[in-house]
Amino acid sequence: MDPLAVKNLTGLVAATFTPLNPQGEINLSVIGPYIDYLIEKQGVNSIFVNGTTGESMSLSVEERKTLANDWCKKAKGKMDHVIIHVGCMSLKDSQELAIHAAQIGADGIAVISPSFFKPRSAEVLRTFLQEVASVAPSLPFYYYHIPAITGVNVLVRDLLEDIEKVIPSFRGVKFSGSDLMDFGQCVSYSQPKWSFLYGMDEQLIAALAMGANGAVGSTYNYIGSNMNELISAFEKGDIAKARTIQFKMQELLSFAMKLGFDLGVNKQLMSVVSGLCLGPPRLPVMQCSDAHALSIAEKLRRLFPEH
Ligand SMILES: CC(=O)N[C@H](C=O)[C@@H](O)[C@H](O)[C@H](O)CO
Ligand SMILES: CC(=O)C(=O)O
User: What is the DSSP letter of 77?
Assistant: First the structure.
């Protein structure tokens, strides 16, 4: 089947953590149970692999290929969408990963802006994305916007101008920015096959009001079931309930942020909540203490007692 004909990407997408063993090497044995956990315990049926949460920029190209292959293989027949993030500082590396993603049967690829040398305009960024997309023309293509990390602040709406003419496989954006006006302008320009997925989990409800088709984020790994309830409540028009869930989630994050919430903490929190052994992060991200993650997990259980 033509992958470009598949159904739109909607709903919750978990940005997966990369399992490492205590020595810091990738640990594929966790991936199967991880997929089952997301489906059975969180009701999350799509994943975004090797993104920010997956520490992609700290992995080698070979490691990224090995991980992408294993996630795709083990998710086959179980998950709706496996999106592989293939963005790198080097266009060549990104292209190599895009070709690889097509070979292993990924459902789509996403690309972040390069950020060491930054594209100086939306047009230059669009050309970079085009060069990556063109080597895997049969794969749905998503731009991954995360300006707080890349420092690349082009308006996504500007990037979208006539993008389907240069990237026929273009299917949407993972928007991890706080500019909801830009987000709204993107949604209002959207075309039927496109998906706009929001990426700041703490303000998902605002993006839903603006027309988001779904969301990609790290917290959906461990509070996916609650955030699924938020989306259902929103869709039924029960805004008060949706807001209550969002506020609880914000209370959790604000508690975690006061303790210094970073990827190391986030990864350890997922290990504690899920019981999966995700191992340490890789430097420069630092491992967090068990006590630290346990106190956030305790807060999570108090806010969402079903855990
Ligand atoms: C910087 C970062 O990792 N952003 C994630 C995705 O874009 C989010 O899912 C956040 O982890 C989440 O919104 C918590 O701040
Ligand atoms: C949140 C997300 O999409 C990422 O970690 O890449």
Answer: T
ipTM for the predicted complex: 0.95
Which pLDDT tens digit goes with each residue over 46-93? 999 999 999 999 999 999 999 999 999 999 999 999 999 999 999 999
**In Å, what is the CA distance from 288 to each residue of 27, 149, 210, 269, 272?**
19, 21, 36, 9, 12
Q: How many CB atoms lie within 10 A of CB 95?
A: 18
Kindly give, in sequence order, each residue whose CB lies less than 8 Å from that of residue 32, ignoring residues fewer than 6 positions away: 74
Give residues with Cβ within 8 angstroms of 244, minimum separation 6.
Answer: none
Q: Is the dihedral of CA 112, 116, 122, 125 positive or negative?
A: negative
Ligand nearest to the CA of 144: 2
- Helix-helix angle 263-274:220-235, to 10 degrees: 80
User: Of the residues 65, 74, 174, 267, which is catalytic?
Assistant: 174
Among all bound ligands, the one having the nearest atom to the CA of 203 is: 1
Give per-residue pLDDT as tens, 202-211.
Answer: 999 999 999 9
Counting beta carbons within 10 angstroms of the beta carbon of residue 77, is it exposed (0 to 12), middle (13 to 18) or buried (19 or more)? exposed
